[in-house]
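User: I'm putting together notes for a lab meeting next week and I want to include a structural view of one of the chains we've been expressing. I don't have a solved structure, so I'd like a prediction I can at least talk through. The sequence is below, exactly as it appears in our construct file.
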Amino acid sequence: MAYDRLSSLEAGQSGAGYTDDPAFQDLQYELKNKLQSLLSNNRKLANDVNVLGTKKDTPRLRERVHNTMEKSREICKDIGDGVKKLQTWDDLTKQQKYEQTKVSSDFQTALQEFQSLQRRALEKERASVTAAREAQASEITGDGGEEQLQLQQQQQVSQLAPQDEVDFQEALIIEREEEIRNIEQGVGDLNVLFKQVAQIVTEQGQQLITISDNVENVHESTRGADVETRQAARYQKAARNKGCCLLLILAVILTIVILAIVVG
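Assistant: Thanks for the context. Below is the predicted structure for the 264-residue chain, given as structure tokens.
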């Protein structure tokens, strides 16, 4: 992503030109902590959603899934408010703009993952309720040539099983249908937030690309200047070596001349 490239370019230079703003730093730190909580919830939710609809599916598991999604929705709303508030800061340095954009982008990714998990849970809940309704209906209507036998069995079961058990099973189905409606509403509410965050990230994208390009240009210019300095140093060294050689030659010639004069 663009902010990854900018991060690598600014490595070791994050403190340069950075204006300390306690309020900005506090909000940014708070959002990062909440993002970590959301990511942790996503991991737990992914494991539990995988179990939904299997033989290990239990009322306790569904309650845990429901509670995790409720907590994650609240975290998403809090982070969304914080991201919007973070956009109100003016006169930000390049590093602050980078951090501002990174928080928004990271939240967009985590929110998208949470929405995907909610939809998976919704599909599995719907399938379970449909199967329960069909099983309940088959107990009443019977099936094919075995209808008479099933009716007899139902009469025997009805004598053994109290009506409270039937009512209890119906209550469980109604409860799961209510959970489905809650998930549907949660997905719908966060869809609005997701679109808002996506718009923020898109608007920041061009700014981040510009910052990244500027930083890269500075990096290239600095590297070019370093190369030129090294070349100049090599030229100076070569010139000094040539100068030393010429002096040595002149000294030898001068020595020969003096010896010739003395001997002559």
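A couple of points you could mention at the meeting. The radius of gyration is 37 Å. Residues 5-18 have pLDDT under 50 and may be disordered.

User: Perfect, that's what I needed.
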